[in-house]
Amino acid sequence: MIHQLVYYSRNTVPGGDRAMLTNMREILSVSQRNNARDAITGFLIFDTQWFVQILEGERGKVTETYNRIARDPRHASATILNVRDVPARLFPNWTMGGAMRTPDVQEIYLAHGFGGPIDPTRLKSEQVVALALDLQAFEESRRQGRRLAS
Ligand SMILES: Cc1cc2nc3c(=O)[nH]c(=O)nc-3n(C[C@H](O)[C@H](O)[C@H](O)COP(=O)(O)O)c2cc1C
Predict the structure, then answer these.
(1) Overall domain count for the chain
(2) Whose CA is nearest to atom 18 of ligand 1?
(3) Does the pLDDT value for residue 93 go beyond 90?
(4) CA torsion sign, 20 to 76 to 129 to 84?
(5) N-to-C CA span, the chain
(6) How far is the C-alpha of 11 from the C-alpha of 62, rounded, in Å?
(7) What is the pLDDT of residue 96?
(8) Rounded to an integer, what distance in angstroms lies between the CA atom of residue 131 and that of residue 129?
(9) CA distances (Å), 18 to each of 15, 41, 59, 76, 98, in order?
């Protein structure tokens, strides 16, 4: 069984889009290195004010990783939405995929009922997983397109 944890937290890094993009890139780069070592996969959604993340892997490693993340001063009020065991990874190809909310993914947010900013207090973990799966599919097709074009 694969352990899966879904949480949200509030971004504490100030600044405009550029600062946020840099922040997101730094987080993803360290995450990809550590998660490859710990066999953690998942997806990080960043909606300017809020982070929502799915972590999956061996139970002990997921807990250890979450505890480390929760202490990070780049966000606050980390709140677990759900933990469960799943038969297989949902994000097998991503040590940590991530998507900042940009205009090109707005349609995906809309399709999941997020016209405006995410309100994490009303989020259901299944909704998060469904949104992340579609964002993942979008990112994968975009990468595929880049490969074909080069
Ligand atoms: C929203 C958010 C998500 C993060 N996700 C991960 C993650 O999936 N894996 C990870 O190792 N670190 C993640 N981090 C970074 C950790 O908090 C921490 O800085 C990092 O693991 C420290 O790694 P190091 O000891 O190798 O420098 C995240 C940080 C934030 C703010």
Answers:
(1) 1
(2) 69
(3) no
(4) positive
(5) 39
(6) 21
(7) 87
(8) 6
(9) 8, 26, 35, 21, 16
What is the tens place of the pLDDT at every residue in 45-80?
Answer: 999 899 999 999 999 999 999 999 999 999 999 999
| 102 vs 56, higher pLDDT | 56
Question: How far does CA 79 lie from the centroid of its chain?
Answer: 14
82 close to 125: Cβ distance less than 8 angstroms: yes
- Ligand 1 atom at minimal distance to the Cα of residue 55: 8
Structure tokens at 43: 């997806």
Q: Which domain holds residue 19?
A: 2-149
- Which of 19-23, 37-41, 80-84 shows the lowest per-residue confidence on average (mean pLDDT)? 19-23
Ligand 1 binding pocket (C-beta < 6 A) is 27, 30-31, 34-35, 44, 51, 53, 65, 68-69, 72, 74-75, 96
- How far apart CA 33 and CA 4 sit, in angstroms, is 19
CATH number of the domain residue 67 falls in: 3.30.70.100
Q: What is the DSSP letter of 120?
A: G
Q: Which tokens belong to 73?
A: 């001063």
The closest of 35, 88, 43 to 64, measured between CA atoms, is: 35
